[in-house]
């Protein structure tokens, strides 16, 4: 009788999946879309692979819709996401069995699958990334290329989660400037480059990580860039700029560092804002059309690379209360300072979103 306050049964090391699902099951825009399009309304006739002979969708969107409906019915305190997991493993075989996985990897693959099932194509053969080398206004170019991308990739997933990145590379020899644009589903912020920018004992903030991400870097002799004008590899300067902010901004803190043979987990504390996060105010980004974001969910990871545990904190979209989702167990709980060292994937929603029609 308390919709949204519901655990997910652990099917054997599936805390990574449960925490990811909790964050998505609390995304109001995604819920609205899945509710409205439940089963067949938004069914894409161009894709027959994911439907049976009656036109009923059988893809991952179908199982997520089913789970969402059960989850928000208010009839259960724990739901078993077994059907969802089986379907997921059919599409992405690495999730078969009882192994522990990366919650961020699942999130990226699941959203991409959902997008592929739901997208409608108006035109085809349009490149999603394009290069411009002239001195035109980059915001205009970015918007034009975004519209082109949308022609081929219209989906609720893109509407909700995707933004656009601009990458500028300048050749150190001939000063040829290459500007490319590509959509992103999440920002993957490294922790290590921040250390060089701000040495000392200062605690990292999400703003510092974002600043470091958009700071220019030199592609040196060890990692040179192929300059199409010089027709050879050259040292170059590269800079990223965020030129379109999504409705829901997913920020991935790179806590897992992979080297040739082993992986390392970084437990550095990162302070992140709960409300009024305005990444568009940070230099190297285009001002945010949504003004600012509020945190709505946080997936955390505690422990080492090979033996860790995932939990999720989510804000109830109707009551505004925070809950800690730990597989089957749910408790009303705000984020605390210990979550600064565990926060792994943050979900920010622009604060113009309204949640009033949830139960209607
Ligand atoms: Zn060059």
TrEMBL record:
Substrates-to-products reaction catalysed: Thiol-dependent hydrolysis of ester, thioester, amide, peptide and isopeptide bonds formed by the C-terminal Gly of ubiquitin (a 76-residue protein attached to proteins as an intracellular targeting signal)
Enzyme Commission identifier(s): 3.4.19.12
Pfam families per record: UCH
Gene3D superfamilies to which the protein is assigned, alphabetical: Cysteine proteinases
Domain of life: Eukaryota
Cited CDD domains: Peptidase_C19R (cd02674)
GO molecular function, one term: cysteine-type deubiquitinase activity
GO terms of biological process kind: protein deubiquitination
Domain USP: 6-351
Designated name of the protein: ubiquitinyl hydrolase 1
Source species: Ciona savignyi (Pacific transparent sea squirt)
């Amino acid at each position: 009788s308390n919709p949204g306050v519901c655990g997910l049964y652990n099917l054997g090391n599936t805390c990574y999946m449960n925490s990811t699902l909790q964050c998505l099951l609390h995304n109001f825009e995604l819920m609205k879309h899945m509710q409205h399009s439940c089963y067949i309304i938004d069914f894409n006739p161009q894709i027959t692979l994911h439907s049976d002979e009656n036109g009923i969708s059988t893809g991952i969107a179908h199982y997520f819709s089913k789970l969402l409906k059960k989850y928000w019915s208010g009839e259960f305190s724990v739901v078993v996401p077994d059907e969802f997991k089986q379907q997921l493993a059919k599409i992405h075989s690495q999730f078969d069995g009882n192994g522990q996985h990366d919650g961020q990897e699942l999130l990226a693959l699941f959203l991409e699958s959902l997008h592929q099932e739901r997208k409608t194509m108006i035109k085809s053969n349009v490149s999603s990334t394009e290069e411009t080398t002239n001195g035109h206004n980059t915001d205009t170019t970015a918007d034009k290329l975004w519209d082109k991308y949308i022609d081929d990739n219209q989906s609720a997933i893109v509407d909700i989660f995707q933004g656009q990145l601009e990458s500028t590379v300048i050749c150190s020899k001939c000063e040829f400037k290459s500007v490319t644009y590509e959509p992103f589903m999440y920002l993957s912020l490294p922790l290590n480059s921040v250390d060089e920018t701000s040495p000392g004992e200062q605690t990292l903030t999400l703003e510092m990580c974002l600043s470091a991400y958009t700071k220019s870097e030199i592609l040196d002799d060890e990692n040179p860039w192929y300059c199409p004008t010089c027709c050879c590899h050259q040292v170059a300067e590269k800079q990223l700029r965020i030129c379109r902010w999504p409705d829901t901004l997913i920020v991935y803190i790179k806590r897992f560092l992979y080297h040739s043979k082993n992986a390392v987990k970084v437990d550095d504390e990162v302070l992140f804002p709960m409300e009024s996060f305005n990444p568009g105010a940070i230099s190297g980004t285009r001002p945010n059309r949504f003004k600012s974001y509020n945190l709505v969910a946080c997936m955390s990871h505690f422990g080492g690379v090979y033996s860790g545990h995932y939990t999720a904190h989510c804000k109830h979209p109707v009551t505004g209360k925070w809950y800690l989702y730990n597989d089957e167990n749910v408790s009303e709980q705000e984020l605390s300072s210990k979550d600064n060292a565990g926060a792994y994937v943050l979900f920010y929603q622009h604060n113009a979103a309204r949640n009033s029609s949830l139960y209607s």
